[in-house]
Amino acid sequence: MSGVDVRIGIIGGGLMGRELAAALGRWPALIDHPVRPRLTAVCDIRPEALEWFRQIDTVTQLTTDYHEMLASDEIDVVYVAVRHDLHEAIYTDVIAAGKDLLAEKPFGIDAPAAESILRACAEHPGVFVRCSSEMPYFPGAQLAYRMIASGELGRIVSARSAFLHSSDLDVTKAINWKRQVATCGAAGVMNDLGLHAWHVPLRLGWAPRTVYADLENIVTERPGPDGVPVPCDTWDNAVLHCRVDSGEYSFPMTVETKRIDPGEKNTWLLEVVGMEGGVRFSTKNPKRVEIFAKIPLSGGGSEQAWQQIDAGSQSAWPTVTGGIFEFGFSDAILQMWACFLAERTGELGPRFATAHPREAAATHRLAVAALASHEGGRAVSLAAEPALA
Amino acid sequence: MSGVDVRIGIIGGGLMGRELAAALGRWPALIDHPVRPRLTAVCDIRPEALEWFRQIDTVTQLTTDYHEMLASDEIDVVYVAVRHDLHEAIYTDVIAAGKDLLAEKPFGIDAPAAESILRACAEHPGVFVRCSSEMPYFPGAQLAYRMIASGELGRIVSARSAFLHSSDLDVTKAINWKRQVATCGAAGVMNDLGLHAWHVPLRLGWAPRTVYADLENIVTERPGPDGVPVPCDTWDNAVLHCRVDSGEYSFPMTVETKRIDPGEKNTWLLEVVGMEGGVRFSTKNPKRVEIFAKIPLSGGGSEQAWQQIDAGSQSAWPTVTGGIFEFGFSDAILQMWACFLAERTGELGPRFATAHPREAAATHRLAVAALASHEGGRAVSLAAEPALA
Amino acid sequence: MSGVDVRIGIIGGGLMGRELAAALGRWPALIDHPVRPRLTAVCDIRPEALEWFRQIDTVTQLTTDYHEMLASDEIDVVYVAVRHDLHEAIYTDVIAAGKDLLAEKPFGIDAPAAESILRACAEHPGVFVRCSSEMPYFPGAQLAYRMIASGELGRIVSARSAFLHSSDLDVTKAINWKRQVATCGAAGVMNDLGLHAWHVPLRLGWAPRTVYADLENIVTERPGPDGVPVPCDTWDNAVLHCRVDSGEYSFPMTVETKRIDPGEKNTWLLEVVGMEGGVRFSTKNPKRVEIFAKIPLSGGGSEQAWQQIDAGSQSAWPTVTGGIFEFGFSDAILQMWACFLAERTGELGPRFATAHPREAAATHRLAVAALASHEGGRAVSLAAEPALA
Amino acid sequence: MSGVDVRIGIIGGGLMGRELAAALGRWPALIDHPVRPRLTAVCDIRPEALEWFRQIDTVTQLTTDYHEMLASDEIDVVYVAVRHDLHEAIYTDVIAAGKDLLAEKPFGIDAPAAESILRACAEHPGVFVRCSSEMPYFPGAQLAYRMIASGELGRIVSARSAFLHSSDLDVTKAINWKRQVATCGAAGVMNDLGLHAWHVPLRLGWAPRTVYADLENIVTERPGPDGVPVPCDTWDNAVLHCRVDSGEYSFPMTVETKRIDPGEKNTWLLEVVGMEGGVRFSTKNPKRVEIFAKIPLSGGGSEQAWQQIDAGSQSAWPTVTGGIFEFGFSDAILQMWACFLAERTGELGPRFATAHPREAAATHRLAVAALASHEGGRAVSLAAEPALA
């Protein structure tokens, strides 16, 4: 690998920061990638969180003040994974410092924050900014996206995109910052999981014309740090019933984000059926893709069939892993970073790009529409999104 | 079988009329049923349709004029399966003639027709009237209903009821009376399939507070009898997103009726999940029921599990068929008639009753709300339904 | 239905006798069948078992002595469902009396008994004799059979046929005659279920060249009528690993009959895969058929796929039931009888015939080979079966 | 990570060598692992294969002569992934050189080779040697193993272990060294895939008493490098039907290794059912585990159920990855190395150990038995394996 060195800094040394550090170590698995990233700096306000990163040979800066990192000349790209209420300040600081950014969703705690970040982008056009969304990099999701984008499904009959969790079914699970409006945002689960479910639809150009939302706050208090119940005031489940215009017709699309969907540990799914074909993928079985077709039968006649195939290991960027092997979440993280860094250097080609700031910001407008819809009991129209390309 | 003889007449000698004739022949399969039905009369305006019934030994009257049948003293119960636009006139005539009635859905072509039939019922309180809905008699559906009705699922998180067909995906399929407003009704697929999907929710007391509807007319013309395209102006697919009040909380319920759902040949499904449990049944696999529970794991801890069990042959009314055997559609028809005739004689006991006229009429009010919702892009409130019992 | 009247007598008024009575009542569901069967006589040594049949209008003779039935001129066809140890005597008596016979499997308690019955057949060539096997009449099984028989699967890679039960997992289940050698036969579960699993393979011409058997008697005693444990000395599970010759090559086929297969309530399955295609059907989901094919992918390339289709209601003989509806066990019984009686009158055409006496007898030779194999720990060769046709 | 540095050398810079290099980069994902491995040397006879490894910073030696690597003081552990016919010479050289070894299966091309390697182990007791087998590290497999080993399943009714591939269904696929006896070994697919399928059964102490084998060589020639057909003389599919002794009883176990199983891209599966419970895991859906239990039903009674749970990301050694995320093949490689290196330092604890040389050697004795069984058409007895612990 003769790739160009890129120096990475992390702000927020939690779960996803460590996952990134591990993913960068696996970088040699990528075949002929133009970039060679190195984790060089990590910032976390909790000094103890920094300790974990001492094992990474390439790390040279550990700090509790992100301004120190931004002041460094030794950083090319910053990954930020912090509480939603901190997104706006930190993201705009990163951008203003001229560092490229892979930002965690939801890209600001609300629409105004997202707009503020977008303005920072506009003011620093040389800074490359994208938003994190790794689930579409599962091979089955990639195949589904290609099939849908090709138009081969014919007139779309229905579409569904969802990200479904279930651990909040446990009402004794302790409160955390993602379960409170102040730190998660008024959009609740839509802030948490929304971009996961919206990334592919938006990339397909399926910004909805209208949204009708069904929102649920099922568990309204949870044990606080000391066990005493405290308010749990965000939305647990959000189901958005949308109409999407597509040339001469429109079609229904349902986009779901749920923290309480019994039995769904980490289910990201995409299902689109049209008059000529259909495709389904779900991480409920991350190895399977289902393709709908009308098939001829022995002896004459035909039947409608869902065809099950095993997805292999190959996603957007080729790797050394044998094509028949099982793909996992950590592979998805690696693929997202491969595409992010390749796009940054203009070498992504036709591969699937990470989420664009406009896509991330669009999820906030959708959440605003959803909140208004839920409040008013009506479908809310959205202004047409400008095309991404 | 020492059951009381009941004489059955059929108006409409089509598919379902013949299915009933066959089901009555299988009556001895029922254990200790209080009634012994005999098919004695059949009416159809097409003389050639009557021919088929000549093979039934007990049939003594074949006529093209249903008034003749209603004038007979030899008929106790009439089953009517005719075009929707004929329901009101025939059903009210049957009732006025003092014959008991099992009516095909949708119980009138629209809400005024249904109200008219309800008035006839009120005017003839001695006449026993119910509406056809056989799918809830699949054993898996019966188990699901019992589990839900017991309250053991805890606070309901979400509910889904659906009846899904796919043959209309074939755009070359010829027009028929169910695909045109004049004969099927303005509610389209909701008239056709609505009671199938609403019967169990309504029986559970889940008349929705609000309905938001997404309606689709995808195939707008189809070949006529001579192959020339004619308008196909009814709704193909209807998805109703509802809120249901349940004591201190409400929950989302989706009720779907579709003629174009690729791959779904005849899928009736019911899925309800709550904070304490869940249950799923679908005729996509008519032998399986899935029950959600939190299960302990070996070595400690627990996991959320969907538990798959094989349903057997036993439904509402016991039969001589071995309990392990596979239940089919014709068994569902038999069970529905077993419960209809048992209820008529006051001997149903706690078993699942066939659809009540008020349930059938409620589907029209729901369709009216759905049409208004679709037109206005908003959730439409429904007046509280009076409790059935 | 202008079919020729055929008068049916039943010897053995238990579960299957009542199932037949119910099935005959449903006969009008068959379209244009050449025969019109009537149940006219029933024999059971338990007078109380006869009572149930009094409700059947056409029954004119109830007797505890089957010789009385055989002496009657009013019987054309006899169905016998009695204990295995009684097969030989009764079947040969029926045949000697010149009555046509549909015999329950295993067609004699052992190979000598089967041979004795075959001799009776040979001595009375005018008597039409077949053996009961209803599971292949499930529509999915019919489709699978047609695909396999067509040769389109290419060189066979592997075949599996099985009939799997699970209720004997309950070790407190009481003993019955099928669990003891004296009344069930030394072949145990192979006598009970063997023809179910062998019918289609034998029909395909797949009489094995060798058999290696793995037999299990897991539960060796069960509660007797008074609760005191008594010996349960038959085989619970039998798995036969066979080689089948097919022209230039041979292939492995596994044929399983199990009383203890946890979770399998009544699973009959057939799975055959070849180099050019494959097919799977199981009553675990009686509505689904899976077809293997290599399918082209969008954008180039191909993948191996199992294609899932919904089977409908139509089996060997057409019925009035709508094609999209669910098929059940009672439909399978009806189809078997439709084909049995049609073949008897020479009007079966290309439809799937019920099990031939030679097929039934072959299962005994297979059981003998299995017992020898299990005893000797070796594959046992079978003499080539004469072709059926 | 304050782990002890361990220097790794690779002999054989192909697919699995590169996979290891990538896995070692991801090492920081492991929580509190006692070892810190570094890839320092790579050997391949093809100089061009070495080029890929230049991107690994820690690599200091690239050589085409493995003796050079073995002569180095800078190597602690060697991983060898070469042709089967080279195993004996290289493995014994590595051991003689005092280097610890993780060897690819089948641990020698045949039983004598395996015995030779075992002797080398015995002669160098200070050398730590294990064999590669990563599939049991899928979390679902770990759960299944724990359940089975706990004894909670009760008397075992049946067991199945398999590794199933399908790409050889394509008869135009070119020959390679794994398809020829000279380089793959006379055991064919059993050499390739056998340890994958045998590792867990052997670990459970389930060395069979007898083996009856069904072997298939379906595709007997394949295109050579120049497209001209050359002999393809190894076994494609091997199915071993075994009896396993377990105290007072024995049970049937089937162990399958197949290159031609249509539709199975890379399916490793383990299914064990007993009288008290059961468990199934398959990489066909690597996220699902199925647990059999008898469950109580609402309203009384119980049913046999297969309970489906979502496996998470956590395997034998804990990682920083969130517990709900999807596990992939590369995670399995990492886990195997985590356990190999932890066992090497005596810090494995109760975690699942990589395959022991005696387990690897046992697969050769099983293959010998299988070949003899296939040849002789009989079950072949195996001498009791000495217990591993």
From TrEMBL, chains A, B, C, D:
Organism superkingdom: Bacteria
Pfam families xrefs: GFO_IDH_MocA, GFO_IDH_MocA_C3
SUPFAM superfamilies per the UniProt record, alphabetical: Glyceraldehyde-3-phosphate dehydrogenase-like, C-terminal domain, NAD(P)-binding Rossmann-fold domains
Domain Gfo/Idh/MocA-like oxidoreductase N-terminal, chain residue ranges per copy: 6-126
GFO/IDH/MocA-like oxidoreductase domain boundaries: 143-279
The keyword NAD is assigned to this record: yes
Keywords per UniProt: NAD, Oxidoreductase
GO molecular function annotation: nucleotide binding; oxidoreductase activity
Protein name per the record: Gfo/Idh/MocA family oxidoreductase
Organism: Ruania alkalisoli
